[in-house]
Fold each of these.
Amino acid sequence: MPTFLTFFALPLIILNFISPLGAIAWLIYLGDYKILIIAAVAGLGGAFAYVIAMLPAMAILIPGGVLINKENVLIKAVGYLLLSIGGFWNYILMGAWTLFVFGYLPEAVIDRSVPYLLLAYSVSTAPFAYMASKEDRNNEGAHFATLLNQFSSATLFALLLFTDLGLTLILIIFMAVVILGYVLGLFNGLLSGFKKKLYDKND
């Protein structure tokens, strides 16, 4: 996994822990029970919506997974291409969900209110964290995508909370983080496959 993401793993773990607790306690204090109910429904429904939204990509990912195990270099390259396309769809879904959640809360995007920002971060990351917890530990792609979702959401959270940048520039930075993360994840996956192939040959 790219070093720059593992460097942020501990701060993300802390944020993942305090964001739901802080948001719930703060919003109960403010008496905004309605948004807490909406957030709970969104957090639970988001995981199921994600599974459904990933179905079209599975038509690409499954053949890609088969092709990369072939010996023919050209066929293997086609397999990597299919996996990269399917993986990009996964990143698009995560990024779109994060933007939808933050954009749903004008208190977070416009007012930049701390409890609503904490809530937006929690809801934007919870479905994917839950799905990743069900994955095999060796599924590096899924765990990397989940970590990037948390990192990009935390970036959006920090930009809204600690800067006075305009929303357009913040959106551009967020998209750049997602795209850069995708490229690094793609490169890391190809490099891991190459290393594994060399290791198998040496054995």
Amino acid sequence: MRNLWLRSCLRIAIALFIFLAATSTLSALGAAAGPWSAIVIDAHTRGPVEGAVIVATWSRRGRGHSIGFGGPDPVGVEEVVTDAHGQFTLPARTFANPPLFLPIEGPDLLIFKSAYGGWRFRDTPADLVKQGAVIELRPLTVTDERLKYVQGRMAEQDPRLGWLREGRGPESAYGLPYQRIRRYESAINGERVLLGLPRIGLGYPYLGEE
């Protein structure tokens, strides 16, 4: 009788475990987020910027820090280019949260366009999923500025202006799969060639000079 009771308890425990696991898996699936959209403009002329390369990434976050679980981090990468109206759209995505239900957040953006350096949201990043954000690119009119930016040597002149990627230049693509950022790499190398610099490889694994 006792063995029968133990077997019944074991079956109930197994059924409960399976139920909880299935429920956890379903709850870990995030609802479709996005799409995200923006128009990229010249910060001085206010005109649209065509051909700016956008790299969007989504990462697991724990207490504000990116976390990887034996795989590449970030967990999602998308590359798009602005059209003749300076617009781009990132399609909606659905992610499965990793163990411990750490959230997947994003998109974080990398933006590059020849003869520009640094960018900022005119209002707020939240506009990406609302009416569409406006992103301002800062034009670089002096060759020395373009050299400093593409080499990651441009210093922040006034933090209050809010230009992003300031001081690091455009090469902050470390750890991204190079197959997913080919246009970003090509745009940066096009600028480097124009400025008399050698080509470089971006992303992971490192491609090296082409």
Amino acid sequence: MGPIFLLIGAALSAEPGNTGAFGAPVGSAPPGYRVEWICDITRKWTGSEASGSLTPRARWVRIHVWYPATPGTGATMTLRDYFDSPAPPGVPADLAAAIRSNDLGTPSYSFRGIYRGDEAAFSRALETRMAARNGAEPARGTFPVVVYATGQNDFTQDAVLLGEFLASCGYVVVTVPHLGTGPRRALLFVHDPLSYETQLRDLEVALQTALQLPFADGARVAAVGHSYGGIYALLLAMRGPLVRGVVGLDPTYVARRAPYELDLRKLPYFDPDLRLPIVTLRRGSGDVDRTLIDGFHRSDRLEIVFPGLLHGDFTTVAFLRRDLPDALQIREELEVRSPERAAAGASSVFRQVEASLARILSDQPIEGGLAPEDATKRSVRFTAACRVPTSEELYWILVRKGLDAARATAASARSTCPGVPVFEEARCLTIARELGYAGKESESLDMFRLVATLFPESSSAQLAAAEALSEAGKSDEARKRFEDALRLDPGNRKAAEGLNKLRG
């Protein structure tokens, strides 16, 4: 196995016959493991004192790190070791307690909930020997980085088997707990913008920590997430330049979300112009809503459906449940598939994740990135990206090449992707107005002219251009736009008033 570690940046193989803890697949390299606790002094964890008063403290982020290791190094691990890593001095006790409480859970929730009060089964699981070696020496070379986000408020160790698998295939993998802002709000909330910001900042700390490792390849970074973690993986990709692709595991970004959940498009960093490959692995059932993902017109999107699997079958849990007695299984799940089939499906999912990451991080088209096994049992849908300029790029074409060139580029883009709304009126108008705020009047007027051309059937676009042109003293042009706005919307009071003002 020695020569494999001399290949700088090479992916390691995931041999079908290799299995690790709980029968989960592993690759050809031993996975190493370590825990990092990072103090983020730019944020706070608001603790409660005995008196009831609140005290802001620094926020600490616990990071699980897996990586390809040198054979024969490090200490053997059981699953218990993943739960029992001590917090260093300085970590607020209530923060560490909140993480541990959510990870271990109760007989009806989180990890302990899998065993539904059966302490013997719970203890046996904790004593299971894992594939990872604690504190192992890293393998020689540099390896791509995967940031993994677990499902909303799931126990962090739900990532361990995928983390071990990917590390054994040549990846550095990092994950963090889901942790809110204080002891009362220790969980994350799907309606709360601060919860999204908190989790994304924690993931960014994990990514930054991973990139400081000498064996991490910062030029090859991907984000993976299960359930709501798929949303966090997608948002993480929008926040910085490093993430090169996203893999969602039965992700919530293709599920019909409750009305009280936050509209992600209202987040200030939401980027509909994302240009990254997105691979979605999902179950065959469920209430699918592709509205969000279909809006990423500039991204290649591969969707692979695994029929017969359930939501939890895309994670560590499927393997934990496989050998449990019927009394500890969930009846509704048994009606759909057996525990053995769930674990077999999870193995296929793991291999597909690795195959997808290999394509993404080597800049190969994801359309052909299918793992070879069980190909006939999956349905595949690929949507190619519209490789056209964004609204922001259209502005720079206008500045550097002129209004006519920008108009021609926009027309070409629309003919390239017929029926696809490749430009957003609101975004284009925002650019035009911001140019005015910045004192770039000529550019602002040209952008308004461009908007009027881009959206000839929009009364609001014609009115916005007319008002800007009128204010700049371009009466003839303004009159034409006011007339167009009225033609499209005869009851438009502002357009009528603007036109009358010019005539008067």
Amino acid sequence: MLGARHHAAVHRAAELKADTVLKLFETTDAFRRPERFAECCSYANRMLAAARAWRTAPIPRLEYLRRARDAAAAVQLSDEASRGAAGPAIGAQIRARRLEAVTRVKQEFEGQLT
């Protein structure tokens, strides 16, 4: 169900802004349950393969999404950065750093996402 709901976003990964990719990760609960996001990508890959039966090579946008998710999931705040901050402020700091991580990975894949 999750794959069906989000497969269009996976297919359009090259066109999405980093913030939209981060929202996709948040919506699919990719940080707490990475297996759900992997299933979503797997479904999207099967849908694309069915539409393009001739293509057997790995699809760069799926690798981009995997690396972007991994980079965003690896974000942590230091004790110093979170000192004195309340829950919502800590969440905002983590989200901002995750967005930076997704942006960096997107830049690494520039020109490869077709």
